[in-house]
Amino acid sequence: MMPIEEFRGLLDVYGGDVQRWPETKRAEMEALIASNADALSYLTEARALDAALDAFDVPAVDLSQRVLDALPMSPVERLLAWLLPPAPQQWWRPAMAAMMPVFLGVMIGFGGTAGETMDWDAQEQALLGGISAEYLE
Amino acid sequence: MRAVAAGEREAFQRLVCLHQRPLFGFAQRMLQDPARAEDVVQETLLRLWSRAGSFKPERARLTTWLHNIAHNLCVDSLRRESRFAPEETGDGGEPEHGGPSESEERRRADALLRRALGDLPERQRSALLLCHYQGMSNREAAQVLEVSVEALESLLARARRTLKKELKADDAD
After folding, report:
1. How far does the CA of residue A61 sit from the closest CA of chain B (Å)?
2. Residue B101, C-beta contacts closer than 8 angstroms, at least 6 positions apart
3. Residue A47 burial by CB count (10 A; 0-12/13-18/19+): exposed, middle or buried?
4. Could you give the ipTM of this predicted complex?
């Protein structure tokens, strides 16, 4: 039969739940409980502690979104988050991004016209030069 | 984990959903401070994201690895605070006329257990939480605490003996 001190030691390690007892010791422990009043008393004590521990509840929380929000973003994700903000007062950002092609188009357009004006000047000059030369002849 | 190591957020999200509640339960019982427990869980899971590539499944289960990180963060938090102050459970009122009701008794017993757990040395507390609440085997809990199985069993035995003594002393009062 298992010595009572060994039994008590095992209860201190594993508690009062039979399912947690090491398989190799379970049968001996159960035999001792069945035949020894002290063993039964120690088991009752161990189960009372288990019950007290089980009563220590923690609130249910959901931290998933908090964790996901804390993930570092890649540069592309940062740019997209900046361009597509959740708050209405920040919707100037996507509006500005949408207007960028228009701004660029205007800038390119002005730059082209200036060039054409210079070309016209050159053409006029060439024409005038031709007319002058004819005139002079 | 390979998917997480490759930067797949959906895979990470699945792991977060799976592990965040048990980790919070552990951290909350260790620290008895929901705000700090939430910080520990967040930091643990962010480390999962940043260190997924270094996880070796042949050495430990993922839950063991995560609890190791959470445990270390809890210990850091406890040392920073340099004292343990369990949250109030609101049982300081006068007993009702005719003796305490069942719910008052339960609240008192709960407060006593929390205090007794908080008074345990942190390694004994960790050992008990990992085995009793997190359902770990002695071997897994020993891995989390980075001790031998024999050392873990010694921690468990001392923790339970201390708690039994404190709860019995309160009953005698």
Report:
1. 7
2. none
3. middle
4. 0.83
A118 contacts: CB under 8 Å, gap ≥ 6: none
Tokens describing residue B132: 């009793």
Q: Does any CB of chain A come closer than 8 Å to the CB of residue B49?
A: yes
Pairwise CB contact (< 8 Å): A58 & B114: no
Q: Is the dihedral of CA A101, A103, A109, A112 positive or negative?
A: negative
pLDDT in tens, A63-93: 988 998 888 877 776 677 677 766 666 666 6
Q: Which of B64, B71, B70, B18 is nearest to B43 (CA)?
A: B70
What's phi and psi for A58, nearest 5 deg?
Answer: -120, 150
Closest chain B C-alpha to A23 CA, distance in angstroms: 13
Residue B90: what residue type?
A: G
In this complex, is the C-beta atom of A24 within 8 Å of any C-beta atom belonging to chain B?
no
**Whole-model pTM above 0.95?**
no
Give CA–CA dist B31/B6, Å, rounded: 33
C-beta of residue B7 within 8 angstroms of C-beta of residue B36 = no
Q: How far apart are CA B124 and CA B56, in angstroms?
A: 27
Please answer yes or no on whether B34 and A66 come within 8 Å at the CB atom.
no
Q: Which of B13, B24, B42 is nearest residue A58 as measured by Cβ atoms?
A: B24
